[in-house]
Amino acid sequence: MGLELALFGLLAILAVVSAAAMIFQKNAVHSAIFLILNFGCVALLFLMLDAPFISMVQIAVYAGAIMVLFLFVIMLLGAEQTSDVGTAPLSWLPGVATILGVSLLLAIATPLLITGGLGLPEAPGADPQIRIVHAANTADPVDITVGETTIEDVRFGDTTSFSEFEAGDTNVTITDADGTVVFEDTVTFAEDAVLTVVAYGQVTESGNTLALAGVPNVLAVDQTEVASFNVLNVAVEGDVSLVDLGSDRDLDIDDGEIVDAVLATDIGYGELAAAFTLPERRYNLRFVQETADGEFQIIGLSNQRLTVEEGTERTLILTPDYDATADGDGTFRNRVFDSELNIQDAFGSPGDIGGLLFIDYLLPVNLVGFLLLVSLVGVIVLTRPEGIQSKRRSTINRRRKVSRPLVSVISQQTGRDVVVDTPKLDAPDTPSNNDDDA
Amino acid sequence: MTSVPIEAFFTLSLVLFIIGAMGVLLRKNAIIIFMSIELMLNAGNLALVAFARQWGDLDGQVFVFFVMTVAAAEVAVGLALIVAIFRNKSSINIDNLHQMEG
C-alpha cells in the first residue's frame, strides 16, 4: 500500500508541476513538452486505475499524435514566442481568473475534506457463475432447478455451461421424471464465485442419497504455464488417491508404498482434493484405492492418457458408472469433466473494452468515425492554399470573363476586328417570339 | 487493485482541471489556450477512469475513449483554424483578434 501511495504522490506532484509549468512557460515549444510530460504522468495513473488500454491510447494518441500535431503547428507558424503583455484590453482578467480558480478549488475540496471523502461504496462484486454437473446415479433424466432457472432433462454425466446466478441463498431442487422432488436444499453462492456444482449420490427405491458438492473453479488464471486440477471423489467410500503411472500400465509398489507419483491422497467420499497444478505434458492418471488387506487397486481412469495443456483447468470427478443392472458398486467409470478454460478478459483490457465498443456501443463508434471524417474534410477546406475568400474572387473573375461581349472575345481570339451588323445580332430574339406564339 | 483512495484521484483531476481553466483565462497565445483545453479534457478523463474503477463498470473507460476520439478531431480542426487565422492576421495572439468589436 505504501509503495502505491508513494507512486501516486510522485506522479500527482509531477503532473501538477508540469501542468503549472505548461501554463507559465513563455516559449510555446516548452509548454508543449511539459504537456507531454503531464500526459505521460496521467497515462501512468490510468495504469494504476486498471485501465491499461486507455493508458496506451493516452500515450499513443495524446502524447504521440496530438502533441506532434501541436509542435508541428508551432514550428510551422514560428509562434514560439508570443508576448502576453502589451495589448490587454481586459487587464482585470488575470486577477479575476485566479480568484475564480482558487474559489472553485476550495468550493469542491472543502466539503471533501470536511466529510472525509466521497463516501462511495466499494465496487459491487460480479455475479457468481455456476455450472451444474449431474453425477448422480439416477436411471431417468431429472430436472434441476436453481433459483428461478430450471434445467430440464439432465442425464447422468451432463454438464451445463457456466451461467450467472444471483449471489446469496439459492434453492436447489432436483425433481425426477415423475415430478417427485428427490432433493431440495439451500446453497449460498458468494459474489465473484465460479463454481461447479456436482450433484452426486444415488436414487434407489429405498431412498436417495443425493448431495451437492461445490468445486471452486478459476476462470481467469493469471499463470498460464500450468494446468490446474480439481479432483472430486463421489464414487467410493473410503480414501482414494490420484496417481500418475508414467509410461507403464501397472502400479509400481515397493514395500507397501506407491512408487509412482501421487498427486492427491486421502480423498474421501464427497470430498474435494486440494487444487493442484501440473506442468504441460501427457499424464497417465489413475485413481487408486487401498483395500482392506493393504493392497492397492486401480479403480478408475483406465486406458486413458490425459494430455494437459497449459492455461487449462480440469475437474476430475470420480463417479460410479450408471448401469441399471449393477448395484452401483460393480464397475466404476471415471468421468473427466473438463472446464475449457474460459479466460475472461481482465478489467480494462483491450479485449474487454473492444467487446463493449463493438457490441454495446456500435452506433456511437460509427458516429465518432463519421465525426472524424467530417473533421478531416473540415481541415482540408480550412487550410486550402487559396482560402475561402480568394476562391470566391476567382469565381467572380471567371464569370466576368464569360460575360464579356462575344464580339470582343472573337476579336481577341482572331486578332481581327469583327465587322458587326448590330441589328443582325439583336434580331434572333427567340424568347420573345416564343412568347408571341404562345 | 490499487489501494489509493478515489478521493486522491478526484482531487488531482480537480487541480489539473483548474490549472487548465486558468491557462485558458490567463494566456493570450491561442496555441497555449488550446493546450490548456486538452489539459482540462485530460483531467476529466482521469476522473472518469477513477470512477469507472470505483464502480467496477467499464462504461466510464469507454466514455474516455470517445472523449479522446472527439478531442483528436477537435485538435485537428482547431489547429487548422489557427493556421488559417495566422495566414490572415500574421498573429495568433487572441488580443489581436477582436474583429467582432466592430
Keywords summarizing the entry:
heterodimer; A: 438 residues; alpha+beta; 5-stranded mixed beta sheet; 4-stranded mixed beta sheet; 10 helices; 37% helix; B: 102 residues; mainly alpha; 76% helix; 0% strand
Description:
- The complex is a heterodimer of chains A (438) and B (102).
- Helix content of chain A is 37%, strand content 26%.
- With 438 residues, chain A is of the alpha+beta class.
- In chain A, strands 11, 16, 17, 22 and 23 form a five-stranded mixed β-sheet that branches. A four-stranded mixed β-sheet of chain A has the order 4-1-7-10, with no helix packed on it. Chain A has a four-stranded antiparallel β-sheet with strand order 3-2-5-6, with no helix packed on it.
- In chain A, a hairpin with a 2-residue loop joins β8 (203-204) and β9 (207-208).
- In chain A, α2 (28-48) runs antiparallel to α3.
- Chain A is elongated.
- In chain A, 24% of the residues are buried.
- Chain B is mostly helical.
- Helix content of chain B is 76%, strand content 0%.
- Chain B is built from three helices and no strands.
- Chain B is elongated and about 50 Å long.
- The mean pLDDT of chain B is 87.
- At the A-B interface, α1, α2, α3, α4 and α5 of A face α1, α2 and α3 of B.
